[in-house]
From TrEMBL:
UniProt feature coiled coil, ranges: 330-357
Gene Ontology biological-process entries: cilium assembly; intracellular protein localization
Species this chain originates from: Geodia barretti (Barrett's horny sponge)
UniProt protein name: Bardet-Biedl syndrome 7 protein
InterPro entries per the UniProt record, alphabetical: Beta-prop_BBS7, WD40_repeat_dom_sf
Residues covered by the BBS7 beta-propeller domain: 22-320
Keywords, sorted A to Z: Coiled coil
TM region positions: none
GO cellular component: axoneme; BBSome; ciliary basal body; membrane
């Protein structure tokens, strides 16, 4: 079954970087909030009421926000917001109260980040650092550029974390603490990663990782402690752009999460898994500009799932499954529609008057004058 979505505009912020959009989880069956960070350093959180965006909080401008991640206490909701700017990491509650301002003192600006409980994983272009409760724990110098960082869920047995680095040399590097366990070769430089079924802890075994590449391919690999197992790899037959962001969410309500893919040429795709655990394309939408963030949730309505998309220029748009006839228009939108309707009616009257004047002019020009009649005789 094909999925149907309708685009709805929410807000416009300043230009955004890749991976700076998130949909906040909700414990109750209520509409969810969206948080987005922009290149002027402003963090904006909003919800949707009666069809229009309603601001929850908005921070003051500052250094460019390069990363945005959600986290929370173990077993609880991931409703705490973490953003990185230059070498600093700040933490905010879902209501906008700041509870963390940590300067990593790195020599490189933070380009990717992952937060897991009290663990903070940050990467510059070539250096990975791990902090526990803001204290330096592990360090790794990579031989090629790091595009993204992720971490496998912690095991029941005590031990170091298992971070994953997506590197420009077409490889995923699995670490154990500060030591390299092994490298996984993928078809193109991986730009972004996500745990498959992140809502359920990273797939059936908790170690399945989705990745998107600069060449436009999306793949799934299982990273066990001993060796990798390749699950599937999708070809980019349509020659779309590189994969700039990934998300997973149950959009169809069947208990299985769909894969949402955002690309740097503006294409947004939704894939669902078939009976043989292979991805099948269900929906495509073109935004017209590079996509920097995608997420899933119930934003415009608590009863309809949607894909939330952020573009490079800062447009935040919902691709909702709610029928357009059921969408509630805000008073502001209604006033604009009424104004446009009156303007169209006024233009129609002016066109009618101009048409009558033109017809009268043409008719007058076709009547011969007395002078012309005398000359003819």
């Amino acid at each position: 079954m094909e999925l149907q979505f309708s685009p709805v505009f929410y807000i416009k912020v300043d230009s955004t970087s890749r991976g700076t959009l998130a949909v906040l989880p909700s414990a109750k069956r209520t509409s969810q909030k969206v948080v987005v960070g922009d290149q002027t350093g402003v963090l904006t959180c909003f919800g949707v009421k009666r069809g229009s965006a309603s601001m929850v909080f908005k921070t003051l401008p500052g250094a460019k926000i390069s990363c945005l991640k959600l986290s929370g206490s173990e077993g609880g909701l991931s409703d705490k917001i973490f953003v990185s700017s230059e070498t600093e990491v700040k933490g905010f509650s879902k209501k906008g109260k700041q509870f963390l301002n940590f300067d990593t003192n790195l020599t490189e600006p933070i380009s990717s980040m992952h937060v897991q409980g009290g663990h903070l994983l940050v990467c510059g272009p070539y250096v990975y650092n791990h902090y526990l409760d803001c204290k330096d724990v592990d360090y790794y110098l990579c031989s090629d550029k790091i595009n993204d960082v992720l971490c496998l869920p912690p095991s029941s047995e005590p031990g170091p974390l298992s971070p994953i680095l997506a590197c420009q040399d077409c490889s995923l590097r699995l670490l154990k603490g500060s030591e390299l366990q092994y490298e996984v070769e993928v078809a193109g430089p991986p730009l972004c990663m996500r745990l498959w079924g992140e809502g359920s802890g990273g797939g059936r075994e908790g170690d399945e990782v989705l990745y998107g590449t600069q060449t436009g391919r999306v793949g799934l690999v299982q990273l066990t402690a001993e060796e990798p197992n390749y699950c599937w790899d999708m070809l980019n037959d349509r020659k779309y752009g590189g994969v700039s962001c990934l998300s997973t969410f149950d959009l169809s309500g069947d208990g299985v999460e769909e894969i949402v893919v955002g690309r740097d040429d503006g294409v947004v795709e939704v894939y669902s898994m078939d009976d043989s655990d292979q991805p099948r394309l269900k929906f495509t939408h073109v935004m017209g500009e590079s996509v920097t963030g995608v997420g899933g949730g119930s934003v415009g309505s608590a009863h309809h799932e949607e894909v939330v998309v952020c573009t490079f220029s800062g447009r935040v748009i919902g691709l909702t499954r709610e029928p357009l006839t059921q969408q509630t228009l805000s008073q502001e939108v209604k006033e604009k529609l009424e104004s446009l309707r009156k303007e169209v009616e006024s233009l129609e009257v002016k066109v009618g008057v101009a048409k009558e004047q033109y017809q009268e002019t043409v008719a007058a020009a076709q009547v011969p004058s007395d002078t012309c009649l005398i000359l003819l005789h």
